[in-house]
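Renewal narrative, Specific Aim 1. Our central claim is that a sequence can be written position by position from structural information alone. The example that follows is taken directly from our test logs and has not been curated for this report. It begins with the structure tokens describing the chain, in the order in which they were read.
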């Protein structure tokens, strides 16, 4: 945390002000103990009774930004304060890839002229994403002290309908809020509770068209009663081989093998155990497809090493099929890779219960497994195609 470059002074000032405001909402007689628990300077009730705001500001003066963030996080354990949580997110997101204002405007244009949600009430949806009943109003009403953003929303988007989706998102702060809040909106707006399946699929596609320019993507994160739920992840920058492997596997089998390869790529960073399982399954799929096309029988329950031994005989990839020592070593290494991927899957993947002592796979393990599986799959497909070409010549 402290090794990061300091955030702009404006963000630090805003964070300090938000902490002061949150502290000032406590009872005056609670402030001395609260500030002491937050690691701030002590005082007495008389000072707090004079001005809670001044009391808090005085104790925050001169506190560095890393400690301010820590103080804010401790305070957020006691209070639900949207402005404070946003101030923390803005500070912590400094130096990380943003979801830019331009991308946010493009995403907003996707829902321009159509209902924001079509499977639930829009008012209920908005309240799931933003605490509008506690956010300050855009326009003051006759009862300014009691007015909230929710009052504005009901008047202009429910009763009068003079706010379109662009207006709603602008007044919610969508174009300037933290990246975390944008992610919360994107997850909610693509949730199966908010959209029917057709609209959900359409939204995910077009949102991803714009998100990708900032290096992010909506990916399936789970299932709710059979319907997909989504999360926003940072797109992992692939190695050059990813594209060439994709091209070979898509040409060989776009509907099954290539889809599994793409899923494995996407999950390398976010779900290492799942990616390792997919890597092993990818090789099983390729082996079974080639054996099927070659007319070689196999059992559906055959493990990867068994499938590979049958395949290596069919494609003449066994080390004993070659006299050149260097090829014998390479092909022997290929066999070891396949067997190791099977073993890695059994040790580190999500195929079995991990138990309390089993090692947890990391992203680097998944990247190694997926890349090795992709390379081997490409080699097997290319070898099979070369054998077919030679046979038909």
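The sequence written for that structure reads:
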């Amino acid at each position: 945390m402290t090794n990061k470059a300091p955030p702009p002074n404006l963000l630090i000032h805003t964070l300090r002000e938000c902490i002061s405001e949150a502290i000032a909402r406590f009872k005056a007689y609670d402030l001395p103990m609260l500030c002491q628990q937050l690691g701030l300077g002590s005082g007495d009730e008389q000072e707090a009774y004079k001005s809670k705001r001044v009391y808090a500001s005085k104790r925050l003066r001169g506190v560095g930004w890393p400690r301010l963030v820590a103080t804010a996080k401790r305070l957020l354990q006691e209070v639900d304060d949207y402005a404070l949580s946003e101030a923390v997110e803005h500070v912590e997101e400094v130096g990380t890839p943003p979801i830019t204002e331009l991308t946010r405007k493009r995403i907003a244009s996707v829902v321009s002229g159509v209902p924001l949600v079509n499977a639930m009430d829009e008012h209920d949806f908005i309240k799931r994403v933003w605490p509008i009943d506690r956010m300050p109003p855009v326009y003051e009403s006759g009862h300014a002290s009691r007015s909230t953003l929710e009052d504005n929303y009901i008047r202009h988007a429910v009763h009068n309908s003079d706010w379109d989706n662009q207006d709603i998102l602008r007044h919610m702060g969508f174009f300037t809020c933290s990246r975390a809040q944008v992610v919360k909106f994107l997850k909610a707006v693509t949730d199966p509770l908010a959209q029917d399946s057709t609209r959900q699929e359409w939204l995910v596609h077009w949102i991803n068209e714009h998100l990708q320019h900032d290096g992010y993507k909506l990916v399936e994160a789970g299932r709710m009663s059979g319907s997909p739920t989504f999360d926003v992840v940072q797109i992992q920058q692939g190695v050059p081989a990813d594209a060439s492997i994709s091209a070979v596997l898509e040409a060989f089998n776009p509907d099954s093998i290539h889809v599994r390869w793409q899923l494995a790529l996407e999950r390398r960073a976010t779900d290492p155990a799942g990616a390792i399982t997919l890597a092993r399954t990818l090789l099983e799929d390729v082996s079974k497809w080639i054996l099927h096309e070659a007319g070689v029988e196999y059992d559906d329950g055959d493990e990867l090493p068994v499938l590979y031994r049958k395949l290596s005989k069919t494609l003449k990839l066994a080390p004993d099929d070659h006299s050149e020592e260097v090829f014998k070593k390479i092909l022997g290494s290929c066999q070891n890779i396949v067997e190791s991927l099977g073993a890695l899957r059994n040790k580190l993947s999500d195929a079995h219960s991990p138990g309390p002592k089993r090692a947890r796979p990391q992203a680097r393990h998944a990247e190694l497994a997926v890349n090795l599986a992709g390379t081997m799959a490409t080699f097997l497909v290319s070898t099979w195609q070369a054998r077919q070409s030679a046979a038909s010549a």
